Amino acid sequence: MNKSDLIELVQIKASASHARQISKAEVAAVLDALGDVAQETLGLDVEVPLPGLGKLATVTRKAREGRNPATGAAVHIPERTAVQFRPAKALRDAVNP
Question: Which of 6, 17, 64, 88 is least surrounded by Cβ atoms within 10 Å, i.e. has the fewest?
Answer without folding.
Answer: 17
